[in-house]
Amino acid sequence: MEGYAITAQYYDPLAAATHADVDRQIAAALEGLDTALGPIVDIGAGTGLTTALIARTLAAAEILAIEPDPAMRSALMTRIWSDPDLRERVTILPFGALSAPLPEQIAGAVLSAALVHFAPADREMLWALFAERLAQTGRIVVEVQCPTADDMPDTQMASVQVGRINYQASASAQRIGPDRQRWHMSYRAGIGERELRCDQTTYECWVVSADTIVAEAARAGLTGRITNDLVVLTRA
Ligand SMILES: C[S@@+](CC[C@H](N)C(=O)[O-])C[C@H]1O[C@@H](n2cnc3c(N)ncnc32)[C@H](O)[C@@H]1O
Questions:
Q1: Residue 93 and residue 46 share a domain
Q2: pLDDT digit string (tens) for 87-100?
Q3: Which candidate, 2, 135, 194, 207, has a CA 20 to 30 Å from the CA of 105?
Q4: Cα(36) to centroid of ligand 1, in Å?
Q5: What CA–CA distance (Å, rounded) separates 181 from 116?
Q6: Do 30 and 117 have their domain in common?
Q7: Does residue 40 share a domain with residue 106?
Q8: Which domain holds residue 202?
Q9: Would you say the CB of residue 125 lies under 6 angstroms from ligand 1?
């Protein structure tokens, strides 16, 4: 097992501990979006943390949650099925973003912690897809996750308690190209000094800055506005 097949079991508590500030930014960027224009597409929905955030922020939105990984998708289904409101409003699409069946018009899309999985050629297709389908007053909210391909020493990312068990995540990164990093993730679960599990996995990620996203999207006909950790793309 590797990648999200390892990460999925640890994802929610550890992401909740590290992503709250970006979540607030995403909610603010979505505020007031006209959901009558079409669904909101959650690209790389993962376990559904972003899906639930979109649903809380836009109370009438229909959401298309695109998630290709089966391990993450099983957590996503549990989250959606356990909430009658989400069950009504969320469609889970078991595809990558570029092959998912999408309606002709969408009100918006969110890429939260997902853009690192898109190579430059994939991003070009993604911006073109948005340019083709985004409603005139719609918005695409993109998290700029890894703007530069730097090395990073092993760093503790989060430490959370669930019942008697403490879960910790640490990460290190190596630059493996001008726009490429290899991330090593370690997840530890323990009670006091006793380690119960230690799982590790690696991700090879694409690095892209906010300015590059704006330039790439402009070539597809979209306008980008950079705010803190996000780029918001519109037609205006
Ligand atoms: C770090 S998770 C982010 C989950 C969620 N958006 C959040 O912020 O908590 C990134 C997700 O992107 C998904 N992903 C990877 N490649 C993708 C692709 N080509 N299209 C859509 N999603 C993809 C992964 O399977 C993973 O679940």
A1: yes
A2: 999 999 999 999 99
A3: 207
A4: 26
A5: 9
A6: yes
A7: yes
A8: 152-206
A9: no
Same domain, 47 and 67: yes
Instruction: Write the CATH number for 227.
Output: 3.40.50.150
> What is d(CA 124, CA 103) in angstroms, rounded to the nearest whole number?
19
Do residues 24 and 140 both lie within one domain? yes
Cβ 220 under 6 angstroms from ligand 1: no
| Domain containing residue 166: CATH number | 2.20.25
Could you tell which of 117, 124, 229 is best to mutate to test the pocket of ligand 1, judged by most ligand atoms within 8 Å of the CB? 117
CA distance 12 to 78: 12
For residue 236, pLDDT over 80 is answered with no
pLDDT in tens, 14-57: 998 899 999 999 999 999 999 999 999 999 999 999 999 999 99
Decide whether any atom of ligand 1 lies within 6 Å of the 145 Cβ. Answer: no
DSSP 53-103: HHHHHSTT--EEEE---HHHHHHHHHHHHT-HHHHHHEEEE-S-TTTS---
Note the pTM of the prediction, 2 decimals: 0.97
Atom of ligand 1 nearest to the CA of 22: 8
> With 0-12 CB in 10 A as exposed, 13-18 as middle and 19+ as buried, what is 18?
middle
70 and 181 share one domain: no
Structural domains of the chain, count: 2
Assess whether the C-beta atom of 23 lies below 6 angstroms from ligand 1: no
180-227 pLDDT tens trace: 999 999 999 999 999 999 999 999 999 999 999 999 999 999 999 999
Indicate the length of the chain as a whole number: 236
